[in-house]
Amino acid sequence: MAQVSLSQHFCTCCGIAIAGSAEDNTRLCPYCQKSSDERPRRSDEQGADAEVTIRVAARFVAGLRDEEDSTDDEKTVRASTRLSPLAYALAVQQERHSAPVAEQAQQTRPQSVPRKRARRSSRKKPLVLVGCALGLVLLLALLLFGLAGYGGNPRLAQQVAQSKAQLDSQLSQARAQGVPLALLQPLYRQEQQLASTRLFLPAFFDTGQRLLKGYHALSVKVASVVEQATEQAQTRAQQDVQNFQVALSQAAVRGAANLDSFSQQFSQDQLALETAKTPRDYAAISQQARQGLLALSAMEMALGQLQDFEATISRLRAAGVDVTAMQAQYEDDLAAFTGARHVSDFQNVSALIDAQYQQVIVGSIQAFPYVSVTKLNELQAQVRQLTIYGLDARPYQQRLQADEVMVEQAKTVFDDLLFLRQVDTDIASMHGELVQGEARYLVKKFHQEAAAWAKAHPYYDSYDGHTYALDSGYMQAGIGASIDNDLADAQTTSDFEAMVAEAQNALFNLHMLEADFNDHTPWNRPHASDLAAIEHYKLQNRTVLMVSLVEQVMRVYRNGRLLRSFYVTTGRAELPSLPGVWATLDRRSPTIFKAADPKGSPYWFPDTPIKYAILYHWGGYFVHDAWWRASFGPGTQFPHQDAGGDTAYNFDGSHGCINLSESDAAWVYQHTDWNTLIVVY
Predict the structure, then answer these.
(1) Which residue in 575, 361, 604 sits closest to 481, CA to CA?
(2) According to CATH, what is the number of the domain 519-680?
(3) Residues in Cβ contact with 277 at an 8 Å cutoff, skipping those fewer than 6 apart
(4) What is the pLDDT of residue 261?
(5) pTM to 2 decimals?
(6) Are 647 and 664 in contact (CB under 8 A)?
(7) Using an 8 Å Cβ cutoff, are 445 and 464 in contact?
(8) Is the pLDDT of residue 526 over 80?
(9) Which of 216, 189, 186, 211 is nearest to 200 (CA)?
(10) Residue 28 has what pLDDT?
């Protein structure tokens, strides 16, 4: 290629080199149309310009630096012809000013660069966190779907699935058996938490083994909850059946004649207790017993109305009034009452008697002078009774005086009717307060008599030199506390009526204990106190275990005839056996007794095998064999020297149970059944 002689001209505006002949010194810049710089260049400046041109060209022309190292102008021409004129001019200008700009940047770098980096760093932090989170999710997904699988052990996975299925089956069965959902809800939550473990713990964290252990632990808990629920339901059922039996006994004492259906229902409840296994079974027994108790209460209310109706008819008959129609109504009511079985039946009888009684009032007009005196005497007697019970009788005394004035001022049949209705209203208004006062009065009297008798008849124990109360079962440690609790819980008139009966029976039993203390009849012969209790509670046709607390003797009666007698050991002074008339609530042969008190308590005992056990009161009060004792009979309910040698469990009375020797307990168990009653006095 021919050599071209380049001029040393540069544009004074844009600085680009202008190629041309040496003679063309006045040539204008073809780009900016300015005159070229015609100042001569020094040799070192010319070399630098050439180098700049080469560097610019080297950016865009591949292999230009690979050519021979020379400074001929042909390279410059060849490089410049490959670029557009404007791009080439700009490149040259940037190259010329690169060094000053670099120096200025180097001087300002220490201040500007750190701030820029800090800003970049702050902008990058959220992005980094998001990236880390996404990476973690991807990692978990990889571990879950790629690695999870119980370490590739199909057998382990099958075991986990079987354990979960077994747990689900246990929970379903527990619900079907009547276990309350409130007891199972925590187990359902724990199962859900355990299932979520599989989602968050990979295989190399041993998820399979964790799940196996977790499901097994929950299965054990389910069994424990079922056992707990069954025990609670059984205790409630026993308590409800016992309440039903106590009310039935009280009704018999008051002379109720319509008790056959209730007795049959009670027997059915006892048999159901014998066969019940699940909480649902026991819940059904509780409901049945409660319904029986409600029906019994309604029956007694209707019975009271019938008795009042009969008394009114008797008064009218004594006054010379024709009561033939009233007597017929009464007999119809009595027949309806006898055929009643349910709560609604007795309520219908009550409503019928109320309607008929209004007719009786009208009939009473014929004998108004006699009837008015009788009614006023009845009201006056109730006012006096309120005073005896320690209640404020002044409001009722004022009503009595007002009724007496009405009698004196009565002139017409209308006045007579008005008086009869008013005096009946006053008598009825006193009933609730009168019953409450009687219940509180009798409970107070009971406590006073029990304490006074114990003080007058202390038992001196030569074994430890202390004195004890022979009637401790009637004090706070025994039925005294339960009587107080029942009184505190009473709210309705029916509740207080039941409390009156409970206090009356407690007083009767206490009087039987006092009488037996003074009875010197041989222990294995019938005692007057036994026969009085059989008569009082209408037990002539029953099998009865009669337990004397002062004698420490059990006498077995059937149909009023004595069969056998045994020495026993009853509860110690602080945990006495409970006086009362009790039904058989459970029969076990054999069984294991477990302590209700924690280990370390003076009343704790190890699991104890028992051959014959009859539950006479809910809460663990049994008649049972006590093979660890050699001594039974008088005084063994207090600290004593056992004939077989003292141990931690035979030197004192029981925890409330009635202990017999193993052979005696075997005979009692074999000659009794679920219909046997236990009378403790």
Answers:
(1) 575
(2) 2.40.440.10
(3) 230
(4) 86
(5) 0.69
(6) no
(7) no
(8) yes
(9) 211
(10) 64
Provide the b/e sequence for 84-122 (b: ≥16 CB within 10 Å).
Answer: eeeebbebbeebeeeeeeeeeeeeeeeeeeeeeeeeeee
Fill in the amino acid letter for 513: L
Least confident of 231-245, 258-272, 276-290, 605-619: 258-272
Of the candidates 637, 617, 618, 158, which has an alpha carbon nearest to the alpha carbon of residue 626?
637
Q: What is the DSSP letter of 412?
A: S
pLDDT confidence bin for 88, thresholds 50/70/90: very low
Query: Which of 116-130, 147-161, 199-213, 489-503 is predicted least confidently?
Result: 116-130
Contact in structure between 612 and 666 (CB atoms under 8 Å): yes
pLDDT band with cut points at 50, 70 and 90 for residue 16: low
In this structure, what token pair is assigned to residue 143? 């571990």
- Give the pair of three-digit tokens for residue 344: 């609604």
Beta pairing, strands 543-548 & 677-680: parallel
Find how far residue 7's CA is from the centre of its chain.
Answer: 109
Q: Where are the domains of the chain?
A: 9-97, 251-427, 519-680
* Helical pair 324-339 and 343-363, crossing angle rounded to 10 deg: 170
Residue 557 and residue 526: Cα distance in Å, rounded?
9
Which 3 state secondary structure label does DSSP give 599? strand
